[in-house]
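Please, does this match?
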Amino acid sequence: MKKYYSIIVLLLFSCNKKIETEELQKLNGYWQIEKVTFSNGQEKQFNNNPALDYIEINDSLKGFKVKVVPTATEKFLTNGIKENFTITKNKLYYKTHYTAWVEEIIVLNDSVFSVKNNEGKQYTYKKLQIQ
């Protein structure tokens, strides 16, 4: 029985691939939310959501996220609220004047970004190429 338990634990930890520091630069840019998957498996789709998340990180793995909405003049409106974060071991540690939370990076590539928060909600985004 211990043998099976060890194999299961090994599989669980090996499935969560560490994202290399160079790969984290893929976070930079504009991301549009596609869906939220709740801990019970239900999903909420976000079709035609005009709001984007702009994410920017620096070489010391500190960054921010801010909501933006494109305008007809190719500029962006923002709510002006920056959510600052640091990255450690595939996790984004956010802290604002009001609260703090953690999101674990589940997927990160050139076109998809997904994080899961402490409540078990998984947020999936697609990257937008804006000129």
Remarks:
- The longest strand covers residues 76-88.
